[in-house]
Amino acid sequence: MDQQQQITELISAWYNAAYTILDVRHVSMGPQKPLQNYRLPANSFLLAYRGNAFIELDGKPYITKSFQLLHGVKGSTLDIVAAEELFAYYMILYKASESLPEKALADYDQKAKEAKEMLQQSVGTKSAAALWVTAKSVYVVNQNLSSGDVLYKDLGFTVPAVVQELSAASKSNWSTLSLEKLAELDADYLFIVNTKGVSKEELLKDPIWAGIPAVKAGQVYDFDNSSSWLYTGAIANGQIIDDVLANVLK
Question: Which residues of the chain have pLDDT under 70?
Answer without folding.
Answer: 1-18, 97-102
